[in-house]
Structures are given as structure tokens and as C-alpha cells.
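Help! Submission page says 'invalid entity' but I think these are all valid:
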Amino acid sequence: MPTRRHMLLFVAAVPAVGLVGCGSDDEITAADCAPAELNDGHECHLCGMTIVNHPGPKGQACLRDGRTLRFCSTRDLLSWAWQPESGPAIAALFVHDLSRTGWDEPSDDAWTGAEETVYVVGHDRRGAMGHTPASFSRRGDADGFAGEHGGRVLAFDELDWDTLRDEPANGGGHGGSH
Ligand code: CU1
Ligand code: ZN
């Protein structure tokens, strides 16, 4: 008899397989997706942390099978989204819009589409998992954040594994002394 753990793994594997062949019309598309509620009962799909207990912009994924996955940080959202098996399952990705809400306790009514958003990476603020791309719907706000906290402004398509790391990717900012 399968253990509970095996059952969960089996259930998780079904949607990706089902997508390949049938393209059934109850599949969700980006137009059907809207940001879902985030409350103190939600744990990060990737790391298991209680999401709202931590500062910084969070993420969520609307899947083609109708499920929503929530993440403690833009970092964990992207780390999950870039797994090869995640791509085909994704209908839409959302991140907190720091043009409309603050870093310490991002508001549940300030989400924006992850792909239309600009990101500051290599800055000095820390989210749930350390460094996490700071997401802004307005480019001017991203520039202002980078001016205050360091880092550089990138489009969604310019983000990669290197830009998720803590240290500035370009090695800039040396020579300061405190
Ligand atoms: Cu975490
Ligand atoms: Zn996480």
C-alpha cells in the first residue's frame, strides 16, 4: 500500500503528464489567472516557510491545472519557475509590486504580472531567503530603489541564476570603507 508521501508525489506528477497529449479545454490560460489571497496559513511551495512571517516581495504561480502555488520570495518563485518541469505547467506568475506597497510587509492587494515587472538585483535589502529581486511595476521606482539600496535594474527576461545570488554579479561597489 503506498505511503502518504508516495501518494503526494504521484498526484504532483499527473498534471505535467496530462498536459502533453490532450490540451483539454478546461485548462487555465493567463487570461483566467488573477492574484490569489495570501494569508498566515500559506507556506512557500519551495522551502516550506510561512510566507507572511517574512519581509520582501513574494510570488505566486497560477497553474494551467487551476492550482495556485505561493512562494516566500521572488527568489523562490523564480527558482521554481526555472525548473524544466515547471515551465509547461505555468499559466501566469505574479509578484508583489513594490511601486504600490512596502518591503517590510507587502500588501495582499499589490500584485503585478511578473513578466511586465522590472527588477532590482544586487541591492542591500533582505527578504525571506536573503537577497531577492525587488519587483516594481514602474521603472522610475526601481531606479529610485537602486539609488538608495544599490544594485541594477533588469527586465524579467534578463534575470538568471546569477542575478538571484547575494553578491552583486558585476563585482561593483568595491573600495568603500566603513
Ligand atoms: Cu524560505
Ligand atoms: Zn521559500
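Support: the input was valid. A stray whitespace character was the problem, and the output above is from the cleaned input. The radius of gyration is 17 Å.
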